[in-house]
Amino acid sequence: MTAAYDIENFHTALVEHGLIVPTGVQGAYGRGAAFEDIVRGFNGIIDRIAQADGAQEVMFPPIVARALVEKMGYMDSFPQLAGSVHSFTGDDAQARELSERVHAGDRWEDMLSPTRVMLAPAACYPVYPAFSGLLPGDGRLITVMNWVFRHEPSDEPTRLQSFRMRELVRMGKPEDVLAWRDDWLCRGLELLRGLGLHAQSDVAADPFFGRAGKMLAANQVEQRLKFEILVPVISLEKPTAVCSFNWHQDHFSAKFGIRDADGATAHTACLGFGLERVALALVKAHGFDSQAWPQEVRTQLWP
Ligand code: AMP
Ligand code: ZN
User: In the predicted model, what is the mean pLDDT of residues 59-63?
Assistant: First the structure.
């Protein structure tokens, strides 16, 4: 039933089975109850692993300080993906003009001013400034889940503008952080294969903007800073990244003064599961009716 890889038919079937609900906005469909059940089930697996590993859970809102986005270097590397929050700060006369323009069908956005916040581009961004200073001897493990925004409108059900990222962030001594990343590459593959997914890992690069970005991406691959776990969802030849592993070295820790117990600049790494992509990969592998999925998959998701 789900053997063929065809974006349009996959999308249609997802809608017919009530898994997704079109909204007319690309990459911003609604999620039906059955879809949310899958997301919750997988997120629950990560909850249990994170708890067993002693991770500290923190929840942040889906907006971050504009200054944080600037400091993380996001506007240098990914301006094409950023989402900025603007609001109206004018007077009565301007408010009337704004309203008139809206109802006349004229453009009105130039009457808005940027606020001090932007939409979160990754779930882990607020973590780094929150842990400035000295880390405990064995570092820290943090887990976060958040809605993130990326301006990449698309008809592919796996490429969203607003989606959930479940992350684990490790901060500590360089060797501990690298060992954690390497260990998780295996654990991530085992976890996804254990759910019946044809998961493979590969080195990867971020979609850095422009010509200079090509150099940055090549450097990232050469240094093996980013890995992805890929699963065929909408294409067999171009499998979809469902999980990413980023080793930042001292890139973020230096900016925010995160130091290991000896006072040296710490290293950080994060891994992020795209929850909608995992859910869609499971649907692709096991069918549109999650009630009919193999029992060994169901018991892991819904113990
Ligand atoms: P990244 O920070 O780009 O490595 O993304 C982390 C994870 O989020 C990826 O491994 C994907 O699973 C997921 N992801 C990234 N971009 C999108 C998108 N546009 N739509 C849905 N999921 C995404
Ligand atoms: Zn991250």
Answer: 98
Which residue, 247, 258, 242, 167, is CA-closest to 201? 242
The structural architecture, per CATH, of the domain 3-83+121-301 is 2-Layer Sandwich (3.30)
**Cβ proximity of 172 and 135 under 8 Å:** yes
Give per-residue pLDDT as tens, 88-130: 999 999 999 999 999 999 999 999 999 999 999 999 999 999 9
In the DSSP assignment, the letter for residue 286 is: H
Q: In the chain, helix, strand, coil percent, each to 5?
A: 40, 25, 35
Angle between the N-to-C axes of helices 174-194 and 33-52, in degrees from 0 to 180, rounded to the nearest 10: 140
CATH 3.30.930.10 residue ranges for the chain = 3-83+121-301
d(CA 182, CA 247): 10
**Statement: the pTM of the whole predicted model exceeds 0.90:** yes
| Cβ of 272 below 6 Å from ligand 1 | yes
Which residues pair with residue 117 across a beta bridge?
Answer: 65
Percentage of the chain beyond pLDDT 70 is 99
From ligand 1's centre to the CA of 134, what distance in Å?
Answer: 31
Pocket test for ligand 1, best of 163, 243, 252 (most atoms within 8 A of CB): 163
